[in-house]
Amino acid sequence: MSTNNEYDDFMKLQSLYPRKNSNDFIMPIDIRRRIEHGMLSYFADEHALVMLEQREGFYKLHFRLVDTAATLPSIRGTLAAYLTYHEGRYPGLAADWLRGQGFVYKKTLLRHTATAITGNLSLEPIEKASSDEVYSMFGEYFSVVEADLPPRSLFEAEDTYCRRSPEGELLGIVYDMGQTRIVAVSPKTRGQGIGRRLYFAYAMKKVRESPDCVFHEWISPDNGSSLSMFRSLGFTRDTIMSDCYIREKLT
Questions:
Q1: What is the pTM of this model?
Q2: Measured in Å, how far apart are the chain's first and last C-alpha atoms?
Q3: Helix spans in the chain (H)
Q4: For the domain 131-213, what is the CATH code?
Q5: Which DSSP symbol is given to 127?
Q6: Cα distance between residue 121 and residue 179, in whole Å
Q7: Span 181-197, pLDDT tens digits
Q8: DSSP assignment of 163-205
Q9: How far apart are CA 133 and CA 110, in angstroms?
Q10: Which candidate, 67, 78, 31, places its Cα nearest to that of 51?
């Protein structure tokens, strides 16, 4: 496969590959900056366009298949691929191809949508969290793939909201990835509404910026506390699903 890291060349190249069998419908935000910083590389031949987005501890795989004869280039790091599809429909050849490349199905996330955030909560003081604090908190509760954190060098551009105790201890974080959010609350303070207040503050900021904005959040079907919280904020389940596939680091 040939490789190139120029933004304009990449955008032209995408138009040559159909999206019929792919998983790049949700591409990373700020593609130009990721390419220029070496955080997004791509490979192309007659069988596929393959894009590798460097994350924290793994590579996020985006691809467009021309045919299933495509093979991945030699990559020794852990790979994660996400397939988005409508409920009741099989992900198709893309899922078959991933399994043929050594990927293992990991988990499913369900999309929930809200056109307005409900509730009457006071906007308690929230602060920004440093990248070290975010990585430390998420590292306690998520695998690197589940958290899907960007490289630290690009982290400061993201919005993060946190709540602290009077002593300065981090109690909860809402991390805005641009396409979805991750909410993490310290186990000893769960059930006190901290995650709900943080998300409400985040949502009100977005509404002030864009009054007609629509909120989409991806939630694991076995995460009862998150499901309950988002339902209380006015979210309902829609028909979109996302499956995660993992190929562990090759030795």
A1: 0.83
A2: 22
A3: 7-14, 31-36, 93-100, 131-141, 144-147, 152-155, 194-209, 224-232
A4: 3.40.630
A5: B
A6: 24
A7: 778 888 888 888 888 88
A8: EE-TT--EEEEEEE-SS-EEEEE-GGGTTSSHHHHHHHHHHHH
A9: 28
A10: 31
